[in-house]
Amino acid sequence: MIVIAGIVIGVLAGIFLPLHIPAAYSSYVAIAIVASLDSVFGGLSAVSRKCFDLKIFVTGFFGNALLAMGLTFIGKKLDVDLYLVALIVFGTRLFNNFSIIRRYYLDKWPIRRKVKDSV
User: Which residues, 6 or more positions from 90, have their beta carbon under 8 angstroms from its beta carbon?
Assistant: First the structure.
């Protein structure tokens, strides 16, 4: 229940609070969001495999975001698009974790359906 309340509060805050990110920082924020989403999907994947560890999740959440922003910063200083490397890596991991989660729930779905049918 707390998770759903947090999601609702976060969505409402995102919709109604005026937040403007300057164009100079937009690439940093975008790559941090992708890295954070990778950690969230990794956490959900770990929950489905029953090996979730909160310390690993929190350190990965912030560590991945900071590392991705650092790569973006260094790339801008060197005039090289290093953020693309982070996008490719985190995007690949995000889709991989999503496929693990999807398979987990698809494997559970027929079992629930058979139980409902037998009742």
Answer: 31, 34, 35, 37, 38, 64, 68
Structure-token pair, residue 99: 């496929």
Name the burial class of residue 3, with classes exposed (0-12), middle (13-18) and buried (19+) by CB atoms within 10 angstroms of its CB. Answer: exposed
By CB neighbour count within 10 A (0-12 exposed, 13-18 middle, 19+ buried), where does 76 fall? middle
CA–CA gap between residue 41 and residue 35 (Å, rounded): 10
Question: In residues, how long is the chain?
Answer: 119
Q: Considering the chain, what is the average pLDDT of its residues?
A: 86
Q: Tokens standing for 75?
A: 């790339």
Q: Is the pLDDT of residue 62 over 90?
A: yes
Give this prediction's pTM. Answer: 0.74
Q: What would the pLDDT profile of 6-51 be if each residue is shown by its tens digit?
A: 889 988 998 898 888 899 898 888 899 899 889 988 998 898 888 9
80: left (phi over 0), alpha (psi -120 to 50) or beta: beta
